[in-house]
User: Which sequence fits this backbone?
């Protein structure tokens, strides 16, 4: 019977790392309601099973990126923390195997075959891999083939990591381009809005000024008509001893009255138009102070209103 493996073979994580794993896993379990919240914040104790599960999660990530030695050591640590789960030991053996650490792999396979239940799904594979490792240890041709296979696998993993890195870089460039496009659109739209507001304000001032001029001209015409009427009335009041109007003749009086009425009417129209123009101009000036802008948002663009 194969002797139990030296428990010192497993990689002993630094104290700080182990306690960090405990804190993280405890927080996750409490957050999901799987365990009760501790009565004291400093109580982060985990069971051996939970600690082993946390170690195995990290070990798998290491194995996925080709760090087989580190993964094997962490799987061994997980198995030593919770020996009931012999699958950790099998995973450690596979990592030793893929790292070309034949002696550690053979010991781990042998230990797994010894402790695993007879009906374990990986027991038969472990026995075949154990025999393969033994053959590699004594057969130079088989050992060279295994090393070549390991190099090919490492090259494939390196290529996959590079592809993943390139994908992340491309995604980052795409996101940067999207943000830059949003900012450029934001700048253009706000610049257009600013130009439109400036043009509206200028037009409003010009319109208001024109309205004021029309009101002034209209007022002057109305006053001119009133003055003409006053002078006409004074001439009509100039009479001789018999009561006959002598200040102005009849035809001239009719012409003066007609001209005075026309001038007053024209002045009234101009004042009305001037008042309308002034109101429109004032509205344009006030309206130019409000604007609709566009600003970048987390999921696109957002409209902004300014008064």
Assistant:
């Amino acid at each position: 019977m194969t002797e139990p493996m030296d428990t010192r073979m497993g990689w002993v994580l630094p104290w700080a790392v182990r306690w960090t794993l405990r804190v993280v896993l405890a927080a996750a379990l409490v957050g999901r309601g799987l365990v009760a919240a501790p009565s004291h914040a400093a109580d982060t104790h985990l069971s051996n099973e939970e600690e082993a599960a946390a170690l195995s999660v990290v070990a798998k990530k290491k194995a996925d990126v080709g760090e087989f030695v580190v993964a094997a050591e962490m799987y061994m640590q997980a198995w030593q923390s919770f020996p009931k789960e012999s699958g950790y030991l099998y995973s450690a053996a596979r990592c030793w195997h893929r790292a070309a650490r034949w002696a550690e792999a053979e010991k781990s396979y042998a230990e797994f075959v010894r402790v695993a239940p007879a009906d374990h799904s990986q027991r038969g594979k472990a026995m075949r891999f154990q025999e393969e490792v033994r053959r590699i240890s004594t057969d130079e041709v088989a050992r060279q083939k295994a090393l070549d296979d390991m190099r090919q696998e490492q090259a494939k993993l390196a290529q996959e990591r590079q592809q993943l890195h390139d994908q992340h870089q491309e995604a980052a460039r795409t996101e940067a381009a999207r943000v830059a496009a949003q900012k450029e659109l934001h700048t253009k739209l706000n610049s257009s809005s600013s130009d439109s507001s400036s043009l509206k304000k200028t037009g409003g001032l010009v319109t208001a000024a024109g309205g004021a001029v029309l009101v002034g001209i209209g007022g002057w015409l109305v006053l001119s008509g009133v003055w003409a009427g006053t002078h006409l009335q004074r001439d009509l009041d100039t009479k001789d001893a018999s009561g006959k109007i002598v200040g102005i003749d009849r035809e001239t009086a009719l012409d003066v009255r007609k001209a005075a009425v026309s001038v007053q009417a024209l002045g009234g129209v101009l004042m009305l138009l001037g008042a309308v123009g002034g109101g429109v101009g004032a509205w344009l000036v006030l309206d130019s102070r409000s604007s609709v802008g566009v600003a970048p948002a987390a999921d696109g663009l957002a409209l902004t209103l300014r008064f």
User: Anything to note?
Assistant: Residues 236 and 300 are 81 Å apart (CA to CA). The first helix runs from residue 15 to 31. Residues 191-306 form one domain.
